[in-house]
């Protein structure tokens, strides 16, 4: 005989009544709201701690340069010119909106350098209520003849470039995930990346080997890397 809370099936399982589905839908929504509130509180409570950490990092020469170069994902976006520019990075700041967790800014500050006059580059990410993505970027004021991103935009064999990514407003998944990787991993786990020691004993090793060796707890799932044809 079937239970009063559902209808019996041939294999003895119970078909859950429609009202139970509605109840569970409501419960799941409540749980999602709890997760959102936890995330908001994490952003709020961690902000002053990150500011304290920032002052410590300022004491370490080339701290952020080292973190960018050593990161197993973001580091693959650095070509020769990027590496030269990254040498002048003074600070990395992530600004979060407690009320809208999908809105954030990635801010890179620079010392005086031979490439551009900007003291900072900003890339802002936001999502509308309907799920539409938006990206705003700083306009780089290049010194004469130093814009290495412009002269290679139509080069099919072009290498990926982090600095050029900072000038792009593309909202494709790869570009979007790179922003999240910088926000949630490179920035949050900066001290781990700074201190991590890679095995350079294999000259034929690739990035996949680095990812396999990297601490598992840093990634739920490694973000995709951009192929040349995706730029």
Automatic annotation (TrEMBL):
InterPro entries: NAP-like_sf, NAP_family
Comp. bias intervals (Acidic residues): 199-220
GO cellular component: nucleus
Ranges of Basic and acidic residues composition bias in the record: 222-231
GO biological process: nucleosome assembly
Pfam families: NAP
Region (Disordered): 198-231
Entry similarity comment: Belongs to the nucleosome assembly protein (NAP) family.
Protein name: 12047_t:CDS:1
């Amino acid at each position: 005989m079937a239970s009063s809370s559902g209808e019996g099936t041939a294999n003895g399982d119970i078909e859950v009544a429609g009202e139970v589905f509605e109840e569970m839908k409501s419960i799941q929504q409540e749980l999602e709201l709890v997760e959102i509130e936890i995330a908001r509180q994490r952003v709020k409570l961690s902000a002053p701690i990150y500011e304290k950490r920032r002052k410590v990092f300022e004491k370490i020469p080339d701290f952020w340069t080292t973190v960018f170069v050593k990161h197993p994902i973001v580091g693959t976006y650095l070509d020769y010119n990027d590496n030269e520019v990254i040498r002048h990075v003074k600070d990395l700041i992530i600004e979060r909106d407690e009320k809208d967790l999908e809105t954030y800014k990635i801010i890179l500050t620079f010392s005086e350098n031979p490439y551009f006059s900007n003291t900072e580059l900003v890339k802002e990410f936001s999502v509308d209520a309907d799920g539409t993505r938006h990206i705003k970027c700083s306009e780089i004021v290049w010194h004469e003849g130093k814009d290495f991103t412009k002269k290679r935009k139509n080069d099919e064999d072009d290498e990926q470039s982090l600095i050029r990514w900072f000038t792009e407003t593309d909202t494709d998944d790869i570009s979007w995930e790179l922003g999240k990787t910088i926000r949630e991993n490179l920035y949050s786990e900066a001290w781990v990346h700074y201190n991590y020691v890679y095995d350079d004993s294999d000259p034929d090793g690739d990035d996949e080997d680095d990812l396999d060796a990297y601490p598992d707890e840093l990634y739920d799932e490694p973000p995709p890397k951009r192929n040349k044809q995706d730029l």
